[in-house]
Amino acid sequence: MSSSGGTGGPADATAPSTLLYSISLLLFVGIAGLIFYFLIRKQSRKLQYVLLLGRNGAGKTALFVKLTQDRSVLTVSSLVQNVGLTKDVMPRDSGREVQLIDIPGFERIRWDVWETNKGLSKGVIFVVDSVTIGRDSQECADILYRILTDPEIQRRHIPILVVCNKQDEVTAKDVEVVSDILEKELNSIRITKYNPTTKKGNKSEFLGKVDQDFTFLQLRGNKVSFAKCTARSDDPDGHEGVEAVVDFLRTLA
Amino acid sequence: MLDFFTIFSKGGIVLFYIQGTNGIFLPSVNALIRSVLLEERGGKSSSFMHDNLQLQYKLDNEFDLVFVVGYQNFLQLNYVDKFLSEIHLRFRDEYKNDLKFATRGEYKKFAICYEEVLTAVEEGAREQNARPKAMKTFQDSEKSKKTVASLIEKKGGDEKKSSGKGGKTDNNGKVQTKKEQVEPLSTPEDSPKGTLSGKSDDEIMKNREKLFGKRPGSGPTSPKAKPKAEKEKKTKQKRMWEQGGTYKDANTLDFSKEKKNGESQSGGDGDAQDSDMAIVGSGKDLADLDEGDENDYESTEEDESGSDQNENSGTDAPKKKLVAAAAKKGFGGGMFSVFKGLVGSRTVSKEQLAPVIAKMRLALIEKNVAAEIAEKLCQSVSEKMEGKALGTFEGVASVVKTAVQEALVKILTPKKPVNVLRDALAAKSAGQPFVITFCGVNGVGKSTNLAKIAFWFLENQLRVLIAACDTFRAGAVEQLRTHRTRLDAMHPGNNIHLYEKGYGKDAAAIAMEAIQYARDNKYDVVLVDTAGRMQDNEPLMRALAKLIKVNQPDMVLFVGEALVGNEAVDQVVKFNQALADNSQADQPRIIDGIVLTKFDTIDDKVGAAVSMAYITGQPIVFVGTGQTYTDLKNLNTKAVC
């Protein structure tokens, strides 16, 4: 206390110029802040975020590049997320565009990125490797389960598109088969993860109807649709292979 | 000579690649990413083996690029390091304008530059190889940079003399780690001031040398005259640096030292409030266990609302706790860099990083992270941070802090989702019992936590058989029998039984009979309790390996105390080693998961969790937090970091 009073004294002596100075500074900071605020608001209002999610190796980054840059590239496992606009595939004149966020497939990174970005999302694209879904059904369903039970996603009725990627491969499973597999897995997960004796377990926790086997149709809030897709098509013209995804994006933008 | 070379963004988009003899390189690169870059195992070597391929990588943190080179591992290519840094520079030179949007660019033309650089470096290497024969062998042996570093260290701190001498031998990596082990151990004993400055000194020296070592390699493009000049320059400048550097760094370190003292005192006061397990004390009801289980992947908030007694201050406090100390210590540097930041954007240099990282390491060790692990972690983080562009108002310290935090979360998060219950149900539907074997050293709480897990399975309507394979310790079987009686009383309905064969028998045989018995009598889960054993007890470890080999359990859980520090590493490593060595199988069963016990006793010293998860790369499946059956939780990663 006493020390602060001591330093207050000399400061008062030079008051007028200091005061003027600080007022102008405050004004400046205030104006700058307002400008920033509006800039950010304007930007965030314009952009529709869509998250790309899925298991490692499902083809998220390939799809991302296809959607944002309209070309096929080789990809390796992502270490960080990719962010980009989809204006290349959207109709030129519409002026609508979607900000895609490609979330790395590694369990250790995925949910971090997810947590920070889910609040902005207008839609979720869940990418599934149609070739290996039989083997990796558990992990895929785990991810999907977490998306579907996310309070934020449920509250805002975020539409979810399950993309069955790699349809060009011979051994790829059909959309219906993938859907069946996921439903079956989700059914077992919702039993093991949800316990009715839990007092605090809120309604949103349990997916679908309690007394029936789980189907995607039971989900009221979130519309889950399925789409075929071939992210790594070498077709030079247009967005061959990803039309269904583009359609989904159009409905959002 | 090189099998492949590729440049890709950290987002995973391949920008450029050259493929040599070998068919496809993507699997190798993915393996590298998965087991090195993502696991914070970066460290010094920056090389990795996969399928007869030796991979070496370099990170560009400014533009988020990764450069990877792969070659057959029987080739001893000494120019790879140089090649990587040269091509890195070259790439940046060529495309410095486009790199802001690196993933959109076209880099096909870079192939020409690649050839140029490669031939230049190869030629340089060949010349270097040819030359030493004419020269003295003594000088030849001295050309490694790290060897020089160790020589200088010898002058600085005499305690490291022996290890410095060891450094002359070829495999620097091993010697280095030894040194690291020695350093942190010595810290608490010495007067803090002396060691702190002394050590950071060493580190800075090392780092500078590395930096310097890179520069001559990267700058000139004429490789022929290089080797000689490089050597001469190095020795001269180093001497200058030694004096200048020591003095300056001692000063800066003194500043932070004072702050550190103050901080540690205040930190001591604050310690009480963050008994950090948000999961502790959520209740007594049977249901709570499942609830804790559900919280697995959920936000911390729910946990917190459950634990209303003492930790309203919340998970945020411990979250920052681990790194807060270090951040404050490095604040002086942070302030300074803020002013610098006003001028323009800048990148993090090694010099800036070294002191912050050193403090971070101390902070980690203070939290009971094994010294070796702390060192590796910090190295990997510093490698990731170097050259990274800072935002205008970001300080080095705060950036490092978040990086370390991220790294910790990454380590503790399981690689794939752990859902023991689902696996058990899957086994049930397949008509097989789900077998879990518990192992660990004496007195860590194997039986107690086995009982808790049995209770948890009972809660989930599964029939449990406990196999008493601890045929050694007096009272072990009786203890399990008591547990079973109690559990049976709590969950009437003949759902839990004990399979016992008395003492002195072969544990592996009992386990096998128990599993067979479970199969016949439709038990869903078999929990195999084994005798506690010290990791150095060779015969007992062999017995354990036999038990696991014979019975092939679905899950091998290592039970470890949260109390241990450096010992954790030794335990886990030796258990894993014993299981691998004695199994005689191509793909030995090793530890699948960790049960961390006595977590309620350790306050905020949560380092053991980090150490064990880092070493094994396996998830922490359960956490034991007390004496009752319900005191079994899932680890909440956010709460720990």
Automatic annotation (TrEMBL), chain A:
Keywords: Endoplasmic reticulum, GTP-binding, Membrane, Nucleotide-binding, Receptor, Transmembrane, Transmembrane helix. CDD domains: SR_beta. The keyword Ligase does not apply. Residues 131-191 form the FHA domain. One of its GO terms (molecular function) is GTP binding. GO terms for biological process: Golgi to plasma membrane protein transport; intracellular protein transport; protein localization to Golgi apparatus. Its main location: endoplasmic reticulum. The keyword Membrane applies. The chain crosses the membrane at residues 20-40. GO terms for cellular component: endoplasmic reticulum membrane; Golgi apparatus. It is a single-pass membrane protein. Belongs to the SRP receptor beta subunit family. This is Signal recognition particle receptor subunit beta. It comes from Hypsibius exemplaris.
From TrEMBL, chain B:
This is SRP54-type proteins GTP-binding domain-containing protein. GO terms for biological process: intracellular protein transport; SRP-dependent cotranslational protein targeting to membrane. GO terms for cellular component: signal recognition particle receptor complex. One of its GO terms (molecular function) is GTP binding. Residues 152-162, 199-212 have a biased composition (Basic and acidic residues). It is a peripheral membrane protein. Its main location: endoplasmic reticulum. PROSITE patterns: SRP54 (PS00300). Belongs to the GTP-binding SRP family. Residues 288-306 have a biased composition (Acidic residues). It is found in: Endoplasmic reticulum membrane.
